[in-house]
Amino acid sequence: MKKYLLLLFLANLLLIRYAYGFDIKGIQPLAPYGVFSTFSAESLPQGRSGIALGFERSRHPDYYRFTNQFAYGITDNIELDITIPYVYDWEHSTDGFEDIAFGLKHRFFDEGKYGPSIAYILGASVPSGKDEFSTEGSYGGGLIVSKRVGPVTGHANVLYFRPGSNKFKDDVTFAAGLDFAASHNFKLLGEIYAKKSYSGKIDRAELRFGYRILTTENLLTTIGVGFDLKNRTPEYRLILSFTYLFPHKEKKIKKVIEQEE
Asked: Do 105 and 144 meet the contact criterion of CB atoms below 8 Å apart?
């Protein structure tokens, strides 16, 4: 399974030929440490890593986006995230990579009986994308708040990023989501995602619903649909992703038994 997912990861990078996106994807959370694009304050444990392969299909504009993600738990409360998006515009037959995005998430306050867990994220993207899909890099960060009440966990994010090119305006994102643990291996997801884009002309407010299944012990499948609430661009978005969390390697403890003579 591990080798198969790694091959798919490389295939997404090397074999996809056509792409285009109406917005910039930016840094994204790795499931299950987020909803769709809303980050959770929780993170991968120290030494554990995961990869994700994502797919989006949008209607008006018609485009496909393929996303590769990687995350690594540096400590129990510090996580490194990498997002590599590639998009295809069906209408204009245009393709290209977006800028590769990096993020460092640090949870500095753990959840208590009444208080939430709080984290901040610092991020940047390198100017690695095609001209049509690049902002010549970006940098910024934001605040992440999460709170669990029974089987429901809620998350809220405020993110601010500044593009590398002065041709674009600053990007401000407000996101709120929740996941409801319907069973041990099944979660219902809901999210509202509002974003002022780099162009300064596309202000989006999108409502998303879906679910997440623990397909196998380390494989998560996320399926969702999004509907634009403002100007219907896009009219809807279909979301599919597969996340593989590499098993945690436990240290072997050697036992020494002394025998009495």
From this structure: yes
Superfamily of domain 2-245: monomeric porin ompg (2.40.160.40)
**What's the Cα-to-Cα distance from 206 to each of 94, 179, 186, 203, 231, rounded to whole Å?**
25, 17, 23, 10, 10
Kind and range of the H or E element at 13? helix 2-14
- pTM across the whole model: 0.84
Query: Where are the domains positioned within the chain?
Result: 2-245
For tokens 């995961």, name the residue: 50
Q: Is the dihedral of CA 68, 90, 194, 135 positive or negative?
A: positive
For residue 102 the two structure tokens come to 């990096």
Encode pLDDT of 14-68 as tens digits: 433 333 345 778 999 999 999 999 999 999 999 999 999 999 998 877 888 999 9
The alpha carbon dihedral of 70, 71, 74, 79 has a sign of positive
How many C-beta atoms surround the C-beta of residue 108 within 10 A?
11
Closest CA to 52 of 67, 64, 35: 67
